[in-house]
């Protein structure tokens, strides 16, 4: 396979993708291959477009030329994002890679708008398009190049989790669609004298714009703060619960500062009756081992919980039964019982599901509903509730 041969030849220790240098080489390889392939495609298509006098083919050619610029942006993005942390950027420069993906998207949109204008001009002033076998064959060849390039980008983009390379893969697929549309227009021109070139050029331009819109959406999400990867969330929780004395976890927060630069914090529940030293030893070991295994920086907050007081455990079981009946609640944590005598306060946090919009009014309404349900079971209990959103 050509892709694997390129990787093996130009990237030493190619399987060690956690190594920043290896990851950087993947980015450079993707950028250089993109430049070479898109330059060849530009030359093929501009030649074909001039031979048949087609604005649609010429538009498609310059779209490939913009992809050369996008590949240069990708290379510079990988170079800048690999800079080490400094005083102004203590978590490194990894998000530059997302910005480079965003620049690629804007370049795609710019090309789309430019050729919308050219296509409208061709519709107003049509020029005959003459079918020629050689340009037709050249365009077929160019489509096969783009299919391969898209798969190449997607393969290495998924392997190193690069938004810039994934964006380039999507852009290449849009090029396949637009080039296929152009090929169809050339084929139709052989059988009709209708001036369809401008209209096909317009379709190509709209496909380019749509691809640019999707690229912006996909590359903007990590910058705005998208929800963390489900597999990562499950791995953190599963690994942490495997440690002795850790009975529950909650309040996981994941901050993405670029590929390979993830910082996470989580609360771990430990028995109240073990020593602080023993609990700290477990937490400290879990932080180091999970961080190393998952390639993240994990910070764990220790929450002591009661595991033997029957009164508290009974109240907790009753509360769990009550909360299971309320559809908006996914879990609860930090449960405590405070007070003396018959009347007690139950203090706890509830985590609401994604479809619950937290406002002051909705929060008060939910707190009132929970309190009313608790008093049906335990009239002497009063709930003091904090409503939390789920950040995962």
Automatic annotation (TrEMBL):
Residues 228-304 form the Cation efflux protein cytoplasmic domain. GO terms for molecular function: monoatomic cation transmembrane transporter activity. Pfam families: Cation_efflux, ZT_dimer. SUPFAM superfamilies: Cation efflux protein cytoplasmic domain-like, Cation efflux protein transmembrane domain-like. It is found in: Membrane. It is a multi-pass membrane protein. Coiled coil: none annotated. The chain crosses the membrane at residues 26-44, 50-78, 98-116, 131-149, 198-216. NCBIfam families: CDF (TIGR01297). Belongs to the cation diffusion facilitator (CDF) transporter (TC 2.A.4) family. This is Cation diffusion facilitator family transporter. It comes from Clostridium sulfidigenes.
